[in-house]
Amino acid sequence: MRSVIASVGILLVAAVYGTAFSEGMVDPVVANRQSSMKAMAEAAKTISGIFDGKLDYDAASFKAAAEIIRQHSGAMINQFPADSLGAPSAAKVEIELYRDEFAALARHLESLANGLSTAADAAPNGITAAMRMVPGTGTWTGSGSSLIGKRSAGVMKEDLSKMPAEHMFHLVLQNCTSCHAKFRERQQ
Ligand code: HEC
C-alpha cells in the first residue's frame, strides 16, 4: 500500500517537473534502483526478524536475504548515471561528485552481505553462538572505533571471517544509513 502511494507521489512529481519522460512515466533506471532498494529493505527486515527471534531461523532464508543484499549492492554502482540524479528521484546530484565514496559504500555493503551469506553456510541448523555479538567485550564497538579494524580509503578493513554475523548485520544497517545520509534526499 505504502509503495502504491509512493509511486503515485513520484508520478505526480514527474508530471510537475516535466522530465524527459512522457507524463505518467517514471525513468526505468530510477524505478529499477528504487525497487532494488526496496528488495534490500525487505531482506534486511527478514534478517533483523531472525536475530530478534521474531522469525524462525532457517539457513536457506537467511542466506537468500543476505544474497539479495549482496547482489543489489554490487549492482548499485552502475545504477546511478549522472542524468538520472536529482528530482524526481531522491538520489542527490552529489553522487556524481563523490563517485569513489559512493562506490566504496556499495562495495563495503557487498562484502558485509557476502559475510552474512557465508555465515549461513556454516550454520545449517540454527543461529550459532559464534554468530552472536558478545555484548560489553569492547572488541566490536562499531565501525568507527573497532580495536581490530584499520581504516583504508575511508572504509574499514575488517576481518569478516572472525566477525560475528550479528555484528556484520549491524554494520550493514549502518552502511545503508551512511549512504542515505549523504546521497539521498530526505523524505518528506
Ligand atoms: C551507496 C549508497 C546507498 C546504499 C549503500 C544504500 N542505499 Fe538505499 N538509497 C540510496 C539512494 C541514493 C536512494 C534514492 C534512490 C532514488 O530515489 O532514485 C535510496 C533509496 C532507498 C529506498 C527508497 C526506495 C524507493 O522506493 O524510493 C529504500 C527503502 C532504501 N534505499 C533502502 C536501503 C537499504 C535497506 C540499504 C542497505 C541494505 C540501502 N538502501 C543501502 C543509496 C544507498
Key structural traits:
188 residues; two-stranded antiparallel ribbon; single chain; 2 strands; mainly alpha; elongated; Four Helix Bundle (Hemerythrin (Met), subunit A); binds heme C; 3% strand
Mind explaining what this structure looks like?
The protein has 188 residues and is mainly α. The protein has a single domain, classed as Four Helix Bundle (Hemerythrin (Met), subunit A) (Up-down Bundle), CATH 1.20.120. It is 56% helix and 3% strand. The chain contains 6 helices and 2 strands, in the order αααααββα. A two-stranded antiparallel sheet has the order 1-2. A hairpin with a 2-residue loop joins strand 1 and strand 2. It is elongated, with a radius of gyration of 18 Å. Bound molecules: heme C.
Identify low-pLDDT runs.
11-16, 137-155
Shape: elongated
Proportion of strand residues: under 5%
Instruction: Note the run of SSEs as H and E.
Output: HHHHHEEH
- The CATH class name reads Mainly Alpha
- What structural class do helix, strand and pairing data support? mainly alpha
Which CATH-level-2 architecture? Up-down Bundle
Q: Assign a percent range to the helix content.
A: 55-70%
Mean pLDDT metric: 84
- First-last Cα distance: 17 Å
Provide the spatial order of strands within the biggest beta sheet.
Answer: 1-2
Task: Calculate Rg over CA atoms.
Answer: 18 Å
Number of helices: 6
Count the E strands: 2
Query: Please, how many domains?
Result: 1
Largest sheet: 2 strands, antiparallel
- CATH superfamily caption: Cytochrome c/b562
